[in-house]
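#struct-help
A.M.: can someone run this one for me? Single chain, 92 residues.
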Amino acid sequence: MLMMHGANMKIKSILKSGNACYHSVQNILPSTWSSKNMKISIYKTIILPIVMYGCEPWSLTLGDERNLRLYENRVLRKIYVPKRDEVTGEWR
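D.P.: on it. Structure tokens below:
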């Protein structure tokens, strides 16, 4: 049990580092002058390596994987800025 708690704390610490990195490049990501490809490139080369650094030897639980996936989805939503269609109510 103690091992699980330590791994969970490590994931939270890593996600905090990823958030700090995201906020440091935040003025670039939502900018209209940079293309989505440029924003994805920034995400893949700067933010994602910080989040994934040292994760290889970990045994992730389903909860840990879910937290990592939620983090990635949150950042990608900020990059792609999904919009809800007013007529159908679907996201695009």
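A.M.: thanks! The first helix runs from residue 2 to 24.
D.P.: also worth noting: The chain has a mean pLDDT of 76.
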